[in-house]
TrEMBL record:
The organism of origin for this protein: Fodinicurvata halophila
Family: Belongs to the enoyl-CoA hydratase/isomerase family.
Record-given protein name: Enoyl-CoA hydratase/isomerase family protein
A Pfam family matched in the record: ECH_1
Length: 250
């Protein structure tokens, strides 16, 4: 299903494994991630989660454009429903999540990293909220970037769809540390283990409060995304943009 799961003591290591598609999220992969995190939330032996991507090129390139390009206008609501279940599982996970950003994090891949509690990245990592570039409004992404960076920076990144670097992300506090590729996962696991060793009740209650703060705004953003992204899909503009993207790549 495009996801590798490995238990390392009290840690659950979840690796996005679609390297040939830059670990882009299709429906099966989103479902697998949601199921794994929902299960981790209920497993007392899992105390923290490490999330990373396979390979050296990408953490997650966002939604799978091969899938979304094929969407019919009437499929927009059902497609958005799968995204809502995915966002709910990540943002309501009852265990702390450390993201090891091993490469590009774009669009929904950046959103996934932003929903983690801590982030460590390779110095060559690149980040972008890419929706505007493929004809889609960045609704949930706007909310998450605003939460982390404030209105001014969020507007710049969302409206331009520009790439920003690991160095910038570190300066802004978006990434806690940068590490070379051969040290990335080890450091992320150490950070997760540090969280796993905290008193479990205090961790659970603190996360419950933090998740609640995130969910209130994110739920509103998700509701708006259903409306705005479905409206965009119904116009055919995203499909046309994606077709041009694939044609340019060819």
């Amino acid at each position: 299903m495009g996801v590798e799961l490995e238990r390392k003591g009290s840690l659950l290591c979840l690796t996005l494994n679609r390297e040939e598609r830059l670990n882009a999220l299709d429906t099966d992969m989103r479902t697998a991630i949601a199921e794994a995190l929902n299960a981790a939330s209920e497993d007392d032996e899992v105390r923290a989660v490490v999330l990373t991507g396979k390979g050296a090129r990408a953490f997650c390139a966002g939604q799978d454009l091969h899938e979304s390009q094929q969407l019919s206008p009437e499929a927009g609501d059902a497609w958005m429903d799968t995204w809502q279940r995915f966002f709910a599982a990540v943002s309501q996970c009852r265990k702390p999540i450390v993201a090891a950003v091993n490469g590009t994090a774009a669009g929904a891949g950046l959103q996934l990293a932003l929903m983690a509690d801590l982030r460590v990245a390779v110095p060559t990592a690149r980040f972008l909220m890419a929706e505007i570039n493929v004809g889609l409004p960045a609704i949930a992404g706007s909310y998450l970037l605003q939460t982390h960076l404030g209105q001014a920076r969020m507007r710049e990144l969302v409206l331009t769809g520009r790439v920003f670097t690991a160095e910038e992300a570190s300066e802004w506090g978006l990434v806690q540390e940068t590490r070379p590729p051969d040290q990335l996962l080890e450091r992320a696991e150490a950070m997760a283990l540090h969280l796993a060793e905290k008193p479990p009740v205090a961790m659970r209650l603190t996360l419950e409060m933090l998740r609640g703060m995130m969910r209130r705004g994110l739920s509103e953003a998700e509701t708006a995304a259903v409306q705005y992204q479905s409206e965009a899909i119904a116009t055919g503009e995203p499909q046309a943009q994606m077709a041009r993207f694939f044609e340019a790549r060819r």
